[in-house]
Amino acid sequence: MAAVLKVYADRLSQPSRAIIIFCKVNRIDFQELTVDLAKGQHRAHEFTKINPMAQVPTIVDGRFKLFESHAILRYLATVFPGVPHH
User: Where in the sequence is the signal peptide annotated (predicted)?
Assistant: First the structure.
């Protein structure tokens, strides 16, 4: 069984919301993991091991990690079957 896509996000972040909405609209299975920017959780050592830039959104797809919302959207549109090409 394939690993579920992990999306690290804070819903107050517009780029984070874009990733979440894209996944939902395209029926991509994902696990949303909240990173509370107001509480500084993006600076926690555990999170900076995943994303050294300490920014959301960030995705982890198996052993592959990616940050920057535009790059994430392009990746999701390319890798997941059934996502319409635009």
Answer: none
Q: Which of 5, 8, 13, 28 is catalytic?
A: 13
Known catalytic residue at 69: no
CA 5-38-33 angle, to 5 degrees, is 15
Does residue 24 lie within any of the structural domains? yes
Q: What are phi and psi of 18, to 5 degrees?
A: -60, -40
Beta bridge partners of 9: 34
pTM of the predicted model over 0.70: yes
Structural domain harbouring 46: 6-10+17-79
When pLDDT is cut at 50, 70 and 90, the band that residue 30 belongs to is very high
